[in-house]
User: Fold this.
Amino acid sequence: MGISSALKKVLTNKKLSADITFRSVSAGSYNTTTGVITETNTDTTIRGVLENINLREVNELIEATDKKIQIAAASLSSTPTTKDKVIVGSVTYSIIRIETNQLANEKLTFVCYLRT
Assistant:
């Protein structure tokens, strides 16, 4: 078992994590009549560890009321972007920052900083 698989096993443990919906948002088509670009959403149910922001993490970008979620990289088919959304319960969060933790060029986890 590689380290990526081991981390996925830990981060998807039902005692440590919660079900979330990861919404991948991609640009759709451009309507020349209305001037509107449609978005295409792809929802995936995965598990993640949701945490409050530590006050030492607060800066120009991160606010004290923000949250962060740690997701096993192996749970997603692509790297998250700030266009994507995370849904926990009935609350939809925007991703404002992403940290990728990796070892030997293998992505292990994504830490997504979230704001409502």
